[in-house]
Amino acid sequence: MPFTVFIAADIEGVTGYVSWPDKPPEEYWLREQMTAEVNAAIEGALEGGAGAVIVSDIHWNKQNIIPDKLAKKASLIRGSKRKLMWMDSVERSNLAFLIGFHTGCGKENAVLPHTMDTRITSLKINGLAAGEALISAVTAGCFGVPFGLATGDRAFIDEINTIMPDVEKVAVKEAIGNCAALNIHPEIALKKIRESAKIATQRAMDGDFQPYHCTSPVEILIEVIWPGYADALSLIPGVKRTGGREVSFAGDWFEALGIISLFINWIGVMPGLL
Ligand SMILES: [Zn+2]
Questions:
Q1: Per-residue pLDDT, 23
Q2: In the chain, what are the domain boundaries?
Q3: Is 156:110 a contact under the CB 8 Å cutoff?
Q4: From ligand 1's centre to the CA of 123, what distance in Å?
Q5: d(CA 94, CA 113)
Q6: 42 C-alpha vs ligand 1 centroid, how far in Å?
């Protein structure tokens, strides 16, 4: 089997992206830049010795990357809804990248900080504040797959430094506020991502990266924006109500991830709210 790189690709951490548009579809230029940043990571990975790449489009409806503009060596996972959120098929890979990412909810000096969905106001995994990066790291770690590269805004890179400090990193912008940033030029972002992806793949082949410690079994704490969501979550077997807007679960990581996925993907927005 060829050395395979799995790329989880979001859009909030792409250079130039500073606010969610009022209406879909996303601003087309930003979809092009997201696709270009992913292509830069693919090309770097191939130059570094990878033989195959799987790309997971993870933003919103998960259909943002422009398929016919994606590098031909890569396969693309599009669409919702997925059991492992955005990490399905990471088990088929040898190395993983996070491209275009953002910090978890509630961070200051961060562009659009959130944890999957603005209905979640706090998520903890074994007491650690968790954003999408930690969820990705734990999931890949449980399959024995290490991370090698992370790109996004400066605050996201700071978050990565607390989770997996050894990986290659590219900061493409720095927050000026919640919905404003000082961005590096799009072409400079591509150059940096390509170079870092190549180095990350070469380092991985030399055995430089270790998978994130698989924390299973785990305890997760989920705080939601409205008690009605905690009512819904507490109906899931094994989930305990621990507060007006908070629930907890202790057990296998994939069961915990299943509860998160069920909430994000299948428990809808309450009528009259948001
Ligand atoms: Zn996103």
A1: 64
A2: 4-117+130-205, 218-266
A3: yes
A4: 17
A5: 29
A6: 20
Backbone φ, ψ for residue 161 (5° rounding): -60, -25
**Å from CA of 56 to ligand 1 middle:** 12
89 conformational bin, left if phi > 0, alpha if psi -120 to 50, beta if neither: left
Tens-digit pLDDT profile for residues 191-224: 999 999 999 999 999 999 999 998 889 999 999 9
Question: Among 45, 135, 56, which Cα is nearest to 89's?
Answer: 56
User: CA distances (Å), 14 to each of 98, 154, 242, in order?
Assistant: 11, 11, 37
Prediction pTM value = 0.95
Ligand 1 centroid – CA 207 distance (Å) = 31
Which is the CATH superfamily of the domain at 4-117+130-205? Dipeptide transport protein (3.40.50.10780)
